[in-house]
Design the sequence.
């Protein structure tokens, strides 16, 4: 069993409109845009990162906004919902704020002893805010969100699968343990994770297969401290029969990817070097930052990308 994984690093999804996406996360949710760059494989498309002040692992939601992408179809084999942690007693204010902003899909419930507020993203993305008492992370205070309500970072992601058995075994190998069950949902928490350390597996045997598109999660990334531990995790995954990519330099972290038995794409990302490697903290997310190989085409890329 692995002991190097420390919880969630980031979650990456797809969107249809870059400006709407940027406005939703920075103005409605009050997160900071910590990086404005491009898709490494499609430089005519943004890669936008939102999180706390410095993009701490466990706080960062990222997006590829493809202008002509079809809408995703919810189903099995995907991340059904991404949940953020907020202080206890703040959901009433969030419900009012999101309602005033015209956000759809608002509903309240409770699960595993915590109050939740469900809502949709601009492309029908599934989100929730979950009240948490012991989250001491420092929030970014943007768009008028008070410190006693602001998002602290990720709480969890919920995988929607037809059969959760093989994925549960994989997560157990990755250092997670089953801590509770409620109906069709199994909650797993990584040992020693501390924050952003929960994965919920919802088993829906008769659900149709998901189709990726706008509003779909592309992949879920798990955090390791550095490249040395990442290489150890990669070798362990290879030794157990998983098809894992070589290590890929993503400028702000190093990444490896593999497909889970349930169909969800997992990434293992390093906490180093972080988002301050090419911008000062005060100006994070302001400039268009390009991978080195695209710098000769900066003028053409910048002219093609829509203003935010």
Sequence:
């Amino acid at each position: 069993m692995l002991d190097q994984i420390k919880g969630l690093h980031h979650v990456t999804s797809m969107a249809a409109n870059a400006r709407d996406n940027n406005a939703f996360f920075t103005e409605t949710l009050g997160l900071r845009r910590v990086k404005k760059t491009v898709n490494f494989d499609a430089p005519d498309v943004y890669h936008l990162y939102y999180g706390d002040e410095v993009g701490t692992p466990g706080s960062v939601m990222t997006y590829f906004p493809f202008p002509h992408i079809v809408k995703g179809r919810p189903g099995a084999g995907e991340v059904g919902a991404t949940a953020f942690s907020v202080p206890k007693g703040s959901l009433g204010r969030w419900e009012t704020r999101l309602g005033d902003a015209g956000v759809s899909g608002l509903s309240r419930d409770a699960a595993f002893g915590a109050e939740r507020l469900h809502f949709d993203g601009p492309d029908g993305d599934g989100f929730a805010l979950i009240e948490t008492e012991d989250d001491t992370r420092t929030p970014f205070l943007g768009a008028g969100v008070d410190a006693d309500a602001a998002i602290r970072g990720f709480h969890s992601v919920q995988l929607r699968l037809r059969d959760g058995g093989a994925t549960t075994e994989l997560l157990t190998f990755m250092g997670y343990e089953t801590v509770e069950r409620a109906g069709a949902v199994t909650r797993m928490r990584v040992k020693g994770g501390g924050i952003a350390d929960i994965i919920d597996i919802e088993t829906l045997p008769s659900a149709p297969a998901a189709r990726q598109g706008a509003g779909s999660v592309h992949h879920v990334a798990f955090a390791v401290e550095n490249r040395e531990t990442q290489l150890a995790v990669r070798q362990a995954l290879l030794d157990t029969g998983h098809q894992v990519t070589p290590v890929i330099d993503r400028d702000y972290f190093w990444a490896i990817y593999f497909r889970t038995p349930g169909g969800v794409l997992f990434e293992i990302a390093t906490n180093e070097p972080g988002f301050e490697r090419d911008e000062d903290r005060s100006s994070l997310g302001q400039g268009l930052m390009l991978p080195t190989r695209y710098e000769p085409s900066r003028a053409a890329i910048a002219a093609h990308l829509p203003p935010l």
